[in-house]
Amino acid sequence: MKDELYPSRLELDKSSYEKNLSFLRDYVGHDVVFSSVIKGNAYGHGIRDFVPMAEDCGVRHFSVFSSDEARQACRARTCDSHVMIMGMISNGALGWAIENDVSFFVFELDRLKAAINEAKRIQKPARIHLHLETGMNRLGLEEDEFEDTVRIIKENREYLELDGICTHYAGAESVGNYVRIQEQIENFKEYSSWFKEQGIDPKYRHSACSASALNYPETIMDMVRIGIAQYGFWPNRETYMNFVKKHPDVNAKHKDPLERVLAWKSEIMSTKKVPAGEFVGYGNTYLTSRDQQIASVPIGYAHGFGRNLTNVGIVLVNGERAPVAGLVNMNLLTIDITDIPDVEKGDEVVIIGKQGDQEMTVASFSEMRNFMNYEVLVQIPSGLPREIIE
Ligand SMILES: *Cc1c(COP(=O)(O)O)cnc(C)c1O
């Protein structure tokens, strides 16, 4: 249902999501657990609407960064899906996680001990993933902490459920990091075997994000943590080229197997004629060069449409590309529709997505802004309504 109260809205295309999931599941293997990464408000797609849609498509495992996102995911879910925290959870929030069956990464002995204390207090085991440092040098248990880790786990077996042993790679989307990633893969294999020899054999070994799953299939293991690819984006162009080269069947179809799930749409608010030689909007950044037709669109930098798209950005109207004319305002922008016939108030405006034969990709939007897909997506305002398109 279109919510008339909002100046713009987001659409989530469920059939595109289903296609992405089936492509990714066929690729990683159907016996591998698919964890849908929904940090950053589901990469801008909106946790509240995205989670039930993903559950409808069969997803039962979600990964978030922090405990507040975990709570949002728990509220959004409509069945018994599992929620896993990959990053920040304060010791004070551990009790909440344990009580709610939320699992979390343990990357320090301090966190391990605190989790055990909370588990004892609540009389319920904590579900943990041992996050090992393998060479990213960001988070993770260090090699010299492994023996203590094993000892502490063995002493507190009844308070811990070992859901996983895991790591994360430092830039698997770029061949420039090849050697570093290979070393991490080797380290992870060696370390996780060592834990197994010590009698510590968690349920899932997992290490792959989108880029490592696509570029280094050996990182897939028992579970994958897929973010960007499920939303229909390749982590970067290099990963796409590399994948197509390795998979002639995909190449032969001449079609990207991933489809964008998200579209961002608004409408023409008003139109007016402006004679030649007049400035449009605040100040003097845009001077009409002829008699022009100018339209207003109720989107501005308050909604994430950057001021740096002033006189540079493009939106779609009636299947044509309409350039931003003048400064992007807080809630409003003006576009030049002189060469687009029959534009009327109420006509659809596409900021991201398809209209007719044209498409505004997040990449083209982001190239203009010089950002990565990830960064543009998460800046899409959480307050706008999301509509699921069946
Ligand atoms: C973000 C993240 C992922 C998913 O990354 P994508 O590139 O979006 O697939 C996986 N694992 C961890 C630890 C992450 O932080």
From TrEMBL:
EC number: 5.1.1.1
Keyword Hydrolase among UniProt keywords: no
GO biological process assignments: D-alanine biosynthetic process
Catalytic reactions on record: L-alanine = D-alanine
Swiss-Prot/TrEMBL cofactor(s): pyridoxal 5'-phosphate
Top-tier EC class: isomerase
Residues carrying N6-(pyridoxal phosphate)lysine: 39
Catalytic machinery residues: 39, 282
Sequence positions that bind substrate: 138, 330
Keywords: Isomerase, Pyridoxal phosphate
Alanine racemase C-terminal domain: residues covered: 261-389
Protein's pathway: Amino-acid biosynthesis; D-alanine biosynthesis; D-alanine from L-alanine: step 1/1
A GO term, aspect molecular function: pyridoxal phosphate binding
One Pfam assignment: Ala_racemase_C
CDD domains to which the protein is assigned, alphabetical: PLPDE_III_AR (cd00430)
UniProt protein name: Alanine racemase
Annotated organism of origin: Fodinibius halophilus
Gene that this sequence comes from: alr
